[in-house]
Amino acid sequence: GIDIEAAKGGSGGDDGPSVVETFSPARDEIQSDSPTTAVEFVEVMIQFGLISMFGAVWPLAALLAFINNFFEIRMDIWKFCNFVRRPLGEKAPNIGVFWSVIFELFAVAGITNHCFLCCVASDTMREYFFHSITPLERFFAAFCAENVLLLIYFLIRVGSSGDVDWIKQKKREPLRFIRDAYRAGCALRERRYRMVLTNPQTPFARVCQAEDIDESAAQRYLKVVRYLDRCLPAARMEHLYNSTSTIQSLVNTVSMQTRAGTWADPGERPTAAGLLSELVPTTNVRQSYIIGKRVREAAYHIWSTKRNVVVMGSRAATIMSIRQFACIQEGCTMPQAERYCRLVRYVDRSSGAGGEPWYRLNEMDEENPLGLMQVLMQIADKETEGGDDGEPIPSELGPLIEPIMDAKLAYEKASVVRRRMYEKWVHDKNMNTEDMVLAVCEETGAFPNQLYRYLSIKRYIDDQDERKKGELLAAAAAGRKRTLDLAIEVAEAVREGGWRDPGEPSFHDYTPPVVLDDIAARAAAAAEWFWWWWWRWRRRRRRRSHSANSTRLGMRRRRSGQSSPNGWSSCL
Fold first, then answer.
1. Most CB within 10 Å of its CB: which of 242, 250, 297, 310?
2. Angle, helices 285-305/315-330, rounded to nearest 10 degrees
3. Is-above-0.70 flag for pTM?
4. Does residue 229 contact residue 222 with C-beta atoms inside 8 Å?
5. Among residues 252, 238, 183, 188, which one has the least CA distance to residue 218?
6. Residue 86's closest CA among 35, 44, 124, 46?
7. In whole angstroms, how far apart are CA 103 and each of 39, 58, 94, 152, 301?
């Protein structure tokens, strides 16, 4: 190839002809750290000046300029996306005073130039309109046309100086739904917390610039967040699910309640500690794990019921909307759900397949008295070299949510769960269904929603007639009915009124039978415990026997006066 550094010298000496570099401006632009917009504005300004001032010389120049700009935009996009270092985006209200004045001057000069070009510099008026017109009359006609056109231009500019109503509304409120404003407000809080940790004196305008949100809009979004966080869960969910109310209507409602004294705006917390209490309302590790599991199940349920729905024609927007509605359903924000799901991934990965996460959570509670954030800091330190692949998309959450995918096995597992619940109830007859399920979860390492799923499937199948029950069991045995699909079918039947859930039977009147699978599992656990105890007993016995033999051997050597095996004298 051509040596660029040698080419810059201009002379190739006796080895060959000189090479003159012609692409240095393009290379400098590509290698620049912060590409400036001045070059782009100069190109547009030159083109606009030539067309506005001399377009009458060749009228097709405007059409060719439009075609050139069409391809120029695509080329600039390709250049900035592939070859130029990513510039730092900054919001600006307009293109700047200097460039605005330059383009206005070109527009005014273009009107004047065209009037005198058509009336004075050419014979257009004499050849096509007035054959006997004098040069002075042509100059006067150009002057009158110039003033009339300039008056019309300035009237248009003054009348269109403000934006139309829909543009004003768009600038005033760039988001559409209340849930989007709530999400943007939560993101602002997260950003402000990180920036305040670095610099406690960070101004709010810097936070808005980092999030690319207008300051007035950011204040509205934060007010929406503060109001909804202090509403009842049902009212907050209703506001966030509502797709008809606008953000401005909710802001007006909040303002009216503030003036009436029915709601007092506490304002944003000024310190990082105060912001952390707002961002992380749940610090208990166990409760955070449960919420993360529920968010996963809600996301999978929304995806399974709305598989054919695509948001904005984008897969990424669809996944984001599913996660957003899952967070609304579980009463948390998206950043909070991200923390909870990260904890779930770490606990499930550290417990392993078939492990018991509840024991692991108890250990983490004891080791981390500060709660969730301390655990997440330790997780971040352990995963600096990789290990966390991030949260799976909703369509891939099925095997993570439900380890028993076969509905028939889930139906049989419900009998085991019910029997264990009965045994817990025998020891304490004051326990309700929730307490018994939690106790079984502690014993088996399962998640409460899994056991509720198995029990609801069993109640649903047992409540059907013999023909329907046989069809369901046959479909489950053939693999046509998955556990999660059948659980969703049961939930829809309850919601639509097709089946009334009687709930778990009372153990005062019902005794679940002993299940062979449960007996086999307990026998295997007992055998494993016995083998472990026997192996430990043998190991201790061998150690004691070896210690006794060593003691007797040493006593014999001391009596006979022999040296020890390591070469030291026995008297030492």
1. 297
2. 130
3. no
4. no
5. 188
6. 35
7. 15, 21, 13, 17, 56
